[in-house]
């Protein structure tokens, strides 16, 4: 079909603009891009929350803003001017996301112990006088270890064959053991809630993120003979894509975050979902399961009053590796709003000189939900090589489907600054 048809012209324009955006970010990447591998520039290795010591002021009363919040504006109203400022600005976004969207993750527990073998990981947690335990299955690739690993939430939708063939282990993590679905908000169940209480206001997605962090704690303690704690990725599809997004955003030890078809309560901007035809409503995502924190219920009817949006959750991952996979063929998944979140977050990557470390791909042919796709195989391999094996330096790729191409310009009234110095 020729591109002279108006709708096809729009499709071509969307892909062209996305490619131009990628080219711009790649040009801003430092020549020594390999320096940004692993934990990322300016991030202390082996630290779950590098900005825990930052002084974060209490947010004031929120005012309605139909545009996406400026990720470069601090809570005190001043603007980030240096790359080194991002560390504490990220800490502010983290606090906003916990307070208004996900609920509190809680700092590392008083005691985390466990074991790592070639077939499993066990985790034992004690905090605030309460204890819980859970485990995860391990599948090692061929060859000598120790190996990088990808934590796979939920067990479907991830291309585990390609992950193992690329040289990374697969950690099969059942998040429902940590935060069970099908429970009321005032009686949540699972390992997280056994420690922090069944009436905790923290939603399941953050509970799942907490569990993944405890797996990494145990890998760190194991001495690295089997798995490398500094080369961990995370992925998952659908509800587990929502979870993978939260895992990568809230633990800076994750070197590569790969959410797949996450839908509402995952990648899509909250402000965009109500106006996107067929997308799962915010109220539906909030009530379907207690995925989001209890506080988010106040914003389902008016997300414009939220002081944070999901493009800033994307930015929390920066400058670490991020490969976002979306399905534009299923309206319920809100991929147009997802593309806006990715493009908005990519502006932070660009400002940090890490524009080549984010990839977004929604240009796919197979409409089936959580299918293993040929289009994603090569970028998956490239991201594993770059961020986990550290043997490659392929630039990120932005491939936005014209079927669900969002326009970031419609959603922002801020500009991306040129940040000075080093991260």
UniProtKB/TrEMBL annotation:
Stretches of the chain forming a coiled coil according to its record: none
Domain 4-O-methyl-glucuronoyl methylesterase-like: 123-353
Species of origin: Streptomyces rugosispiralis
Keywords annotated in UniProt: Hydrolase, Serine esterase, Signal
Protein name stated in the entry: Cellulose-binding protein
Signal peptide extent: 1-26
Domain of life: Bacteria
